Amino acid sequence: MNIIEDKQLRQYVHHELRTHLTVIKGNVELLNMYYCSGNYKEKQILTRILEHVKDIEIFLERL
Question: Per the domain annotation, does 40 fall within a domain?
Fold first, then answer.
């Protein structure tokens, strides 16, 4: 069962959210590689962001 029944609306929502998630995920990965300098707290925050991005990606697959 799809959460959004209208196929065009579902595709639009999927595309729009996926695009923004890709940008967020890419920037978090760059921050992690270049700016965390081994700081545990910073890495923990970035890891939490990536976990939430993954949760939203899974949700989008169910649309």
Answer: yes
Give the integer Cα–Cα distance in Å for 60 and 63: 5
> Which distant-in-sequence residues (6+ apart) come within 8 Å of 53 by Cβ?
21, 24, 25, 28
Other CB atoms within a 10 A radius of the CB of residue 61 amount to 9
pLDDT digits (tens, 9 = 90+) for 15-44: 999 999 999 999 999 998 888 777 888 889
Number of structural domains the chain divides into? 1
Residue ranges making up the domain that contains 28: 7-61
Record the pTM: 0.76
Q: Assess if residue 15 is contained within a domain.
A: yes
